[in-house]
Amino acid sequence: MITVPSDPGGSRVGIVASRSVGGAVDRNRAKRRIREALARLALPEASDAIVIASSEAVTAQFAELVKWLEAAFRTGEEI
Question: CATH number, domain at 35?
Answer without folding.
Answer: 3.30.230.10
